Amino acid sequence: MVFTTPVVRALKRRFPDARITYLVEAAAEPVVRHNPHIDTLMVVARPRGLERVRYDWRLARGLRQQHFDIAIDLHGGPRAAWFTRASGAPLRIGYDLPGRAWAYNTRVPWTRALVPPRHSVLNQWDLLGPLGIGEADPVADAVQMPLAPDAVTRVASRLREAGVPDDAAIAVLHVSAGNPFRRWPAERFAELASTLTTLPQPMHVVITSGPSEAEAVDRVTRLARETPLVAASRIVHCGEFDLSELAALVSRARLYIGGDSGPLHVAATTRTPVVALFGPTLPARSLPWRDPAVPSIAVDAGPLECRPCHQRTCVPGDFRCLGGISVPMVLAACRQALGTS
Asked: Are residues 161 and 282 in the same domain?
């Protein structure tokens, strides 16, 4: 979702008088809720069984009644392809994927190959080629997620309740990921967190995770607070943050550290320096797409025969891509991002 936001901006720039409607499922809706280039946001539900069929049919009929001129499928899945076709738009653009020819009348190449690596924003940008839109520029076309004012207020309140001073230097440490291939060991996260609190300019470290990873946060928090010479009050765990709150939290922070997952890309929409840990994926594909003047530093284990991979089976069996990332490596990147190296 975050990777599509440069496309939306480019469309509005190319067609300033156009009305842009964006279809999005509820889970990702906060990413585009306040996007200034979107005129109408349609939140699509996910009912089950026969109700899904009835719901999609009604939605498709409503799309056709709006008489769109152009429909672009930024997703490529069967349901998105169906809505694209059902829109009845004279120009329907999508990826040239197997079994999708019926949905589009203009198709762009797509490859699942991991090598050579190519940034995901550029894969989305390919869909603009038929519209005569030029090359993507990370300065002019950075990823975007405007802050929700109510989320900013909620985050400020929660930090105060957790004892974080308003003028505190904050590091956000996101300790979870969608699969085990992208999870740095909890012990290393804890060591990093405790070290950040003892820098010459000590930081408050706010530890976050996804909704199914509360156990990881609890463990990292406990291990970090048990470290000798660490002020336990600087290790902050104040519950789960939704997407809007996470963006607000990171925008207030001086540093974000995390693996290649959705929260990393939410962090990329802010002006906060980022340290990204890459295991099976490559920085060339997923490093923050934004102004290079804002530090975005990748840390990885270097070249490996098994890297990148499709993250289905760890061939060596030891997740060496993430295991090869040491705490001193990440700490050095943090110092560089903070301008203290």
From this structure: yes
Residues in the chain: 341
Same domain (yes/no): 184, 125: no
Q: What range defines the domain where residue 250 resides?
A: 149-338
* Residue 138 located in a structural domain: no
Using the 3D structure, point to which of 131, 163, 194 is the last residue of a domain.
131
Q: Is the peptide bond before 308 cis (omega within 30 degrees of 0)?
A: yes
**Helices (H) then strands (E): counts for the chain:** 13, 11
Among candidate residues 11, 224, 262, the one with its CA nearest the CA of residue 145: 262
Residue 223 belongs to some domain of the structure: yes
pLDDT digits (tens, 9 = 90+) for 214-262: 888 899 999 999 988 788 889 999 888 999 999 999 999 999 999 998 9
Which tens digit of pLDDT belongs to each residue from 50-109? 999 999 999 999 999 999 999 999 999 999 999 999 999 999 999 999 999 999 999 999
The Cα–Cα gap between 111 and 222 comes to 44
Backbone angles phi, psi at 22, to 5 degrees: -120, 125
Q: 267 and 192: one domain?
A: yes
How many domains, in total, are found in the chain? Answer: 2
> What's the whole-model pTM score?
0.93
Q: Do the Cβ atoms of 219 and 235 come closer than 8 Å?
A: no
The H-or-E segment that residue 212 falls in is none
Cα separation, 315 vs 296, whole angstroms: 29
- pLDDT value at residue 66: 95
Mean pLDDT of the chain: 93
Helix (H, G, I), strand (E, B) or coil at 203: coil
Whether 242 and 300 map to the same domain: the answer is yes
Separation CA 272–CA 288 (nearest Å): 11
Start-to-end Cα distance in the chain? 34
Exposed/middle/buried for residue 36 (C-beta within 10 Å: 0-12, 13-18, 19+): exposed
Residue 319's pLDDT band (cuts 50, 70, 90)? confident
Backbone Cα Rg of the chain: 21
- The CATH number given to whatever domain includes residue 271 is 3.40.50.2000
